Amino acid sequence: MIPRIAEAPSLEQAYADFLKALKHSGFEGQIHTDYADRVVLSTDNSIYQRQPQAVVYPRHRDDVVRLCTLLGDPRFRRVVVAPRGGGTGTNGQSLSDGIIVDLSRHMNQILEFNPDERWVRVQSGVVKDQLNAFVKSHGLFFAPELSTSNRATIGGMVNTDASGQGSCRYGKTRDHVLETESVMIGGQVWTASPLSLADFFDQAGGDGPWQKAQRTIHKIYQDNRAEIAARFPKLNRCLTGYDLAHIVDKDNTFNLNSILCGSEGTLAFLTEVKLNLVPIPKYSALVNVCYADFQHALEDARTLMSADPASIETVDGIVLGLARDNINWSKVQDLLPKEAEIAQGVNFVEFTDDCEDGLKAQIARFEAVMESNPFTSRLAYQVVEGDANVKAIWGMRKLSVGLLGNVSTAARPIPFVEDTAVPPENLPDFIREFRAMLDRYGLPYGMFGHVDAGVLHVRPALDMKVDGDKALLRPITDEVQRLVTKYNGLLWGEHGKGVRSEYVPEVFGPQLYACLQDIKSLFDPYNQLNPGKICVPKQVDARLLKLDEVPLRGDYDRKVPEHLRTSFGSAMNCNGNGACFNYDLDDAMCPSWKATRERRHSPKGRSSLIREWVYRLGQQDVKGVEGLAGKNGSLLRRLKNSWGKKRGDYDFSHEVMEAMDGCLACKSCVSQCPIKVNVPAFRSLFLSLYYTRYVRPLRHYLIANLEGLLPYFARVPKLYNAVMGSGLVKAILAHQVGMVDSPLLSGRDLVKEMKVLGIEWATPDRLEALSAPERAKAVVVVQDAFTRYFETDMLVKSLALLKKLGFMVFVAAYQSNGKPLQVHGFLDRFRTVASQSAAALKVLEDCNVPLVGLEPSMTLVYRQEYAKVLPHTDVPNVQLVQEWLATKCDHLDSLDLNLPRSDYVLLPHCTEKTSEPAAFSQWQSVFASFGLGLSTQPSGCCGMAGTYGHEADNLETSKEIYALSWQKKVTAHDGGQTVLATGYSCRCQVKRLDDISLSHPLDLLHALVCAEEMA
C-alpha cells in the first residue's frame, strides 16, 4: 500500500495576507494556492524549477489593476509576482518563487480588428496561431513565425520580443507593436504608442508616473547616445529588453514600447496590444537542400542568401534522425530528396511572391546561383510548392525543439546556451569553435536554427541528474559568452535573458547597466516584478539571479529512486516544451486541456504532478512500486483511508488523482508530443497504486468486468435492455454508481447471422485445412466488445460485405481485449487477460491468415499495450481493417462494381488518427477502388473515449469537448455530404448529443454494394 503524502509546502504569511486582501478587493478571477497548480507552474520549457507561492488567474484588466494596486501598498512590498502566458520560455523567464499571474486562461480575446488599416487589438493571452487563424480570411498574418506558435501568447511574445523564422524579412515582435496597454505597480493604466517628438514634449510635462517615466527615459537616451551606439550590436537579433537604441526611431518618433518589448514582465503587466499585420504572400515554395556535412550547410548558406530568399532554416543530422523516427515523418518524407535519409544537414530555403511567375523566377535564379557556385557536400535538393506541402515541412522544423528531448539516453540536449546570435557571415566560424568546445567536453549536441539571421540553436546533451553534468552549466555558458563576444554577437539572440541575466552588466557595460537600473526604479522601485531578471533597482539590496544557483528540475529528479524513475519514465522525461497546450480546437492533442483550460489537465501538467509525486514517495523510501501495484491494503484499512479522504485528510495523491481522472486515455499525447509522453500508461500505473490505499468507485469494477459479463447479458438482451433502460436503474447508475447513458445491447444474434451468411468460426484446424488459393482470400475478423454486442448490425454488415467482395471470412471466438482493465489500472488482471487473448489469437495467426479488427481503439491495444506486458514474440499481429483492405486494392479494382460516383467525409477515431497516420490514406485507397471519393477534415476528440463520456463526473466535460470540434463538423454536413466515423465511441457520442447516426465506412460500403447488386 502506498503511503500518504500528508504535507504540502505552506504559504508564507506575507503571501497569505496578500491573497486574502486580493480576494476582498473584488478580484473576480481565480486564486489557487493548491499544491497541484503550484507544482505544474513551477516549470516551463527550461531546465529550472521554482515553486511559486500561489497562482492567480485575472479575468480582465480590472483584476490586474486590483493586483497591482495592492502591490503598491507598503504592507506588501515583500510580495513578488511574475506574469505567465504560454510558459514556453527556455530560460525561466516566467518562473518565480512568488505569485504567478497567468494571463492566458481568461484574457485571451481578440478585441478589435481593422483589416483595411491592417491592425488588430488583442488581450495578452491570445495565442499567435489563434490570431493568425482569425485574420487569415483577410489575407493577413502577424509575423514573424515561432516554433511554439500554437501555444505562445502575444503577451509572452512582446515580453520576450520574440522572433523566429522569417525575421530577416519581417523583423521581430517589437517591429509590429503599434500600441501597448500596461498596468504599473500602484494600479495605474497607461497606453504607450509612438509619439512625434513634438507630441512627446507636449505630453511629457505631467506629474503622472508615465509622464515621469517618459521624461527620464528620454533623458537617459539623450545623455548616453554615444555609448548606446557603441554597445548595441548591429544584428537582426539586437539587444532586446530595455532597448535604449530604439527609443527614438529612424522617423524621429519617441517609442516607449522599445523599453517594454523584451522586458520580461519586470516593468509592468501587459494587458492589451495593438499589432500591425502584414499580407500573406499568395505563393510560397521551399527548396530543401541536403548536405553530407552540417558544417558545410552553414558555410553554403552565405551563397544561398545571395539569392535573397525570404528565410533560410537549418537542421542537423541529429534532428533529422529524430524526425525520421517521429510519427509525422510520413507527412514530409516525399517532400525531401531521398538523400535526406543519409544527410547530416538540411537547409530549408523559402521563397514567397504574390505572383506565381515571380515565384518561379525566384526559384530559377536560386537554382542558377547553386549551379554557378558548386559545393561538393550538397547531396541533392528538391523544390516543394503548394501551401500544404510548405506547411508540412515547417511543421517538421517546428518539432525540432521537442524532438531533441526525445533521445533515448539519460543525457538529453537541453537549452541554456541555445539562442546565440552572431552576424550571419560569422556563423560558420563561430559554430566551428562552438562545436570544438563541446567536443572538448565530450558532449553530444543537436543543432537547428535560422542561418539567415545568424541564430543557431545549439543544445548540449547533459544528464541534469548527475552532479558532474550540472557543474558544466557554468563553464560552458561562460565560454559561450566569451565566444559570442569574439564574433560580435549575443548570448541571447531570441529566447530572452531570464536566469541568464547575470551577464547583462557585462554585455551592457557599467554605464548602460546603470541606465537600466534607473528605468527599473521608475517602474518597480521595490523589485517586485519578476525580480532577478534583466536588472535590479539601485535602491534595494538585491542581485540578479545566477544560472547555477536557481533550483533545477534535475535537483529534484536526482533524488527520485531509480526504480521510481524507471517506472514513470515517460513523465520524468517531459521537457516542458508545451506542445500539449496547442490552442487549435481541431487538433486531437489534448482534449481535456482544451475543455478545461486547466494546465494540470494536460500531458505536461500530469507529468509535472507525477514527477513531484514520485519525488515525495522517494522521500518516504518507498521501494518496489511495480510490486505494490494491485497489492491492496485490507478492505477495512482502505475504507478507513477513504473515510479520512471524505473528512478532508490531506494527501497530495488526491490532487494527482483529480488530474489523472480528467484524462480521456485517447493517447494523442503518445504520438503528438515530440517527447512521446504517454499519459495513459503512467496514469494506469498511478491508478493501480492509488487504489492500494483507497477504495475504488463501484463504476470501476462495472467497467472492468463488462467485457467478461457481456456474453452472459447477451443471452437475455430484452431483459437487460429493459432493466438498463428503466428510469429507476438509470437514476441509481447515475447517482450511486456514477454511470450515465449506458448503451443497450443490439439484440441481434451473431451466431444465427453467421449461419445465414455461411461464415465459419476461425479454428486452427479449419484454417490449416485451407488450400493455397483459399488462404490468399482468407481473413479472420477479431471481435471486440463494442461492435459484437452494441453494434452487432454493423459487424454483420461488415462480414457480409467482405464475403460479397470475394473474401473467405472467418470470425475469431470472442475474447476479452482488456482495454478497460488497462485504462483503469487493473494491471495484474490486464496482464492475465492480455496473455490469454494473445495466446488464442497467436494460434490463429500461426495459420498464416491475416487477423483484422473493426474498432480502432480496441485493435490498437494489441500492438501498443500488449507489447508492453508480453514478450514481443507473443504479441499477435491484428491489423486495422483498412490496413488489410488497402493491400487488396488490386482485387477490389478487378471487381468493377460500377458504383455511382459520390464523395464522403471521414472523421477518424483520435487514437487511430494520431497513432497510425497512414490510416486515412488507406481508407482513401480502399474507397478509390470502389470509385468513391473520401476526404477528411481536421478534428479534435469527440469527448466519449470509450467509457469516459459515460462516467457521470465527466459528462459536462465530455459535452464540452464534443462541442469544441466534432459537433461543428457533424452538423455542418447534416443533410448534405455523408459523414462517416471509424470509432464506435465517436458514433455513440454523436447519436447521444445530436441524435445523428453516423456510419462506419464498411457499413456504408455494404449499403452501396447491396444496392448495386439488387439493381
Entry keywords:
single chain, 1015 residues, alpha/beta, Uridine Diphospho-n-acetylenolpyruvylglucosamine Reductase, domain 3, five-stranded antiparallel beta sheet, 44% helix
Count of runs of 4 or more consecutive helical residues? 49
Q: Given the C-alpha coordinates, what overall shape results?
A: globular
* Count of beta strands: 29
What is the averaged pLDDT score? 92
Helical residue percent band: 40-55%
Q: Low-confidence parts lasting 5 or more residues at pLDDT below 50?
A: none
Q: What radius of gyration results from the CA coordinates?
A: 30 Å
Roughly how many Å apart are the termini? 66 Å
Beta strand %: 5-15%
Backbone structural class? alpha/beta
Major sheet: 8 strands, antiparallel
Structural notes for this entry:
Helix content is 44%, strand content 13%. With 1015 residues, the chain is an alpha/beta fold. Among the domains are: 104-279, Uridine Diphospho-n-acetylenolpyruvylglucosamine Reductase, domain 3 (2-Layer Sandwich), CATH 3.30.465.10; 559-695, no CATH class; 750-1014, no CATH class. The model has no long low-confidence stretch (mean pLDDT 92). It has 49 helices and 29 strands. The strands form 7 sheets. Strands 14, 15, 16, 17, 18, 19, 20 and 21 form an 8-stranded antiparallel sheet that branches. Helix 24 (603-619) runs antiparallel to helix 27 (652-661) and helix 33 (750-757) packs parallel to helix 37 (792-804). A hairpin with a 4-residue loop joins strand 5 (110-114) and strand 6 (119-123). The N and C termini lie far apart (66 Å).
